[in-house]
């Protein structure tokens, strides 16, 4: 195995599913990384392996953290890409959870290392979790898109064919690497309200967890996420109610969402860019100001 990979444990796994999420561009509201971390925790996953960050990060952009241990010893924590493994008794597949930070450089090399770890442990399916900003209201159910490329996998897992074209992140590069390696892969994306800066977003994380467990075929404890989501909705509703302009904008999004028929999942290819969202919000506030 490549010397940039550190194996922390030797665990025998049964055709595991790899669930991966990366902090950064693919992780609006930290929803994806929060969801993956939750799965690793509630499934009592054990540290399996990690990738040395030295070759893959600009440490001026993604800085390591320093902390004091016992009040005296200084410890540096580097950007991590940690693999955790769990045996799942309720299904024939076990699981590997990867929670990492999107690399700054050498994406193809990094993706090939992930593939190497996946092959070493017999991974048959990779599921990536992502979250993106969209013009959706916080008061409606989170829209989840499940996409894949392989027609047979799309039919078996009830997904959609990905039609997205445009800039991509490490998630897109990893799917190409897994495809070349002959390993099935699917992607789940949560739509996060663009007008909120709440992190992590527990409501979006909960939606990702519920859909991911369906694909994995194993249940996961979600009581903590349900409580966090209830608090999140109450606090956000209170904040929105305190600003007439934002309240009116959210009401417009709610009306638009309610008018859309038979929408259960949103296609990322139909989602507006950040510039489109900003322009739409500016037009709305300008029109409202002229009306007053």
Instruction: Indicate the percent of residues in helices.
Output: 25-40%
**Superfamily (CATH H level) name:** PAC-like subunit
Average pLDDT over all residues: 88
CATH class: Alpha Beta
SSE series: EEHEEEEEHEEHEHEHHHH
- Number of helical segments? 8
Q: In CATH terms, what is the fold-level topology?
A: Rossmann fold
Taking the sheet with the most strands, its summary is:
9 strands, mixed
How far from one another are the termini? 66 Å
Tally of strands = 11
Low-confidence stretches: 261-266
Strand content: 15-25%
Q: Can you characterise this structure?
A:
The structure is a single chain. The chain has 292 residues and is α/β, with parallel strands linked by helices. The chain has eight helices and eleven strands. The strands form two sheets. The chain has a nine-stranded mixed β-sheet with strand order 1-3-6-7-2-8-11-9-10, sandwiched between helices. A two-stranded antiparallel sheet has the order 4-5. A hairpin with an 8-residue loop joins strand 6 and strand 7 (95-101). The chain starts with a strand and ends with a helix. Residues 261-266 have low confidence and may be disordered.
Keywords:
292 residues, Rossmann fold, nine-stranded mixed beta sheet, 22% strand
Topology:
Blueprint lengths: L4 E3 L9 E7 L7 H12 L3 E6 L13 E5 L3 E5 L4 E5 L8 E7 L5 H14 L4 E10 L9 E5 L2 H7 L2 E2 L8 H11 L3 E10 L8 H15 L6 H19 L2 H16 L14 H18 L1
Parallel strand pairs: 2-7, 2-8, 8-11, 9-10
Antiparallel strand pairs: 1-3, 3-6, 4-5, 6-7, 9-11
